[in-house]
Amino acid sequence: MVKSILVFVPDSLHLNKSGYLEGLHKEYDECEAYYITNDSSVKETTHAVGYLSNDVTKTKTRDTKAVHIDNLTTKISLVNYGNLSASNVVKIEYDYHAFCNCDGLNEEHQYGVHFKFLSNNLRKRRRKSADNGRKSASIKLFTFIIAVLDWSLSIFNATRLMWAYSATISHFYNNLTGYKWFFTEIMREKRVSPKVGNFLLSKIFDLLLGIILLDLFMENEDVIVNLIENVRETIIYGFRDLLIYLMGSPIGLKLNYAFNKSLGTFFFYHISLWRIFLITMQPYVKEYFKLLVLPGAFGFSYQVAMLSDLVSIATFHVYCIYVYAARLIYLQLKGLLSLWRLFIGRKYNPLRERVDSYQYSQHQLFIGTLGFTVLLFLLPTTTMYYTVFVIFRLAITIVEDILVRIRFLLHCLPIYVLVLWATNSPYMTGSVRLRLKKSKAGVATFEAHLKMLPLVTSVRKFAPNTIKPSSSLSWGKIFTGVLL
Question: Is 186 helix (H, G, I), strand (E, B) or coil?
Fold first, then answer.
């Protein structure tokens, strides 16, 4: 079986001088491919796949199979291939500049594997020529910065338990990770790739927006402190009014009076303790306000993280009451389940981790019946408190998740990608369009151009892959946790 010959030629190939054609040769099951990866001929190279001249008899690569291109007619001929028919040769003229700058191609095309291989090698050649075998001062500086970032991240990892619940410190850790990726990517690519440019512009926008808002905070310091105090009092008094309402007969429910009053008094006491703590901290907030908002100078995303911490602190009593109610209803339901097995003559065996049959005595049945009755009649009161504070907890969780998503959006705003897409940059290309140019002397010639990706695909593909949203609400898990 005679294999087809694919010859990939840059559309900007300089034909003004003779010399070697640099590139790669690769054999496949159904074809052989010659990839010319330099649009200029050279005098000496270790990766020659052919020769550019106006006379095939003067080709210097007659000892091996090679491609010859006539620099007058651009005609392709094959050297040392015997009587291979020219009809087996396919010439593909590709957009050299676009393929050099393309960050990755889809393999959906008939020749997708070849184009992807060609693009990857063009990028490797560009990085190698940018490095030029020398370790520049910038590379040394980037290496030092990456080492410092690695050391900082190791400290944060060692003390993770101390700051795991702080959104501001977690955001700072994620930013260190992002900057490490940024410098590593620049060293690897030797250029500003779409992902790197997107990361850089989003950080600049985040920083400028943060500085503007921080200036507004400083000018209105008293107003903001008073606003925080008013919001705090509104939340606390709102919960106190809610508890007073629940301790009565909410929506006409007939609840256990003694148990309801005991639960309400306990939660009242907890809210009062938290209010005393916040009032005690209020003078320190006023005195050290500038220090507290100082992280906002690093960007608007830090201010969002600080707001998330502020929400967590202001609603900590809600979380505590939710935990108390959840634990109480869990114990009641578990007790009811265990006592229900008593009526049907079953008992859980912890050694074998299964439910076995069991013969209970009359005293056990009597005490179990009393316990089941008490827990059953107290369950509506516990369920009411649990339901109310589960709703509040879900609302707070949704707010915190929205703040996390805002931080993530600020981390990867597609500003650079939108500019590149609007200017039809080759960076935003992802699929190949082939057009038959001519078929002369049996040699089929195609033109290969890159097509622009859709905008949504470009935004997703070139988003910085440093971090992902650290908190993403899973409604299935939430409802499972609430009901079980």
Answer: helix
Predicted TM-score (pTM) of this structure? 0.75
E-assigned strand segments in 140-200: none
Tell me whether residue 441 is exposed, middle or buried, using C-beta atoms within 10 angstroms of its C-beta: 0 to 12, 13 to 18, 19 or more.
exposed
- Structure tokens that stand for 329 in this block: 């209803």
Burial bucket for residue 20 (CB in 10 Å: 0-12, 13-18, 19+): buried
The DSSP code for 88 is G
Residue 345: is its pLDDT beyond 80? Answer: no
- E strands, 252-382, where? 346-349, 354-357
Closest CA relative to residue 20, chosen from 1, 38, 2? 38
Torsional class of 443: left (φ above 0), alpha (ψ -120 to 50), beta (otherwise) = beta
Per-residue pLDDT tens over the stretch 17-65: 888 888 888 888 778 888 888 888 888 878 888 888 876 655 555 446 7
Which DSSP string corresponds to 376-431? HHHHHHHHHHHHHHHHHHHHHHHHHHHHHHHHHHHHT--HHHHHHHHTT-GGGEEE
Dihedral angle at the C-alpha atoms of 342, 343, 346, 351, nearest 10 degrees? -10
Q: Which helix (H) or strand (E) holds 436?
A: strand 429-440
Q: What is the DSSP letter of 72?
A: T
**CA-to-CA distance for 186 and 183, rounded, in angstroms?**
5
Cα–chain center distance at 263:
43
Q: How far apart are CA 270 and CA 280, in angstroms?
A: 16
Q: Are 217 and 343 in contact (CB under 8 A)?
A: no
Q: Tell me: the pLDDT tens digits for 205-249? A: 999 998 888 888 888 888 888 888 888 888 888 888 888 888 887
pLDDT single digits (tens) 274-292: 888 888 888 877 777 777 7
**CA nearest to 8, candidates 18, 31, 181, 19:** 31
How many CB atoms lie under 10 A from the CB of residue 450? 22
Taking the C-alpha atoms of residue 188 and residue 199, their distance in angstroms, rounded to an integer, is: 16
Residue ranges with strand state E in 11-79: 19-27, 31-36, 48-53, 66-70, 76-79
Phi, psi values for residue 17, rounded to 5° = -145, 155
> Residue range 196-210: average pLDDT?
89
HSE (side-chain half, CA atoms, 13 Å) at 138: 9
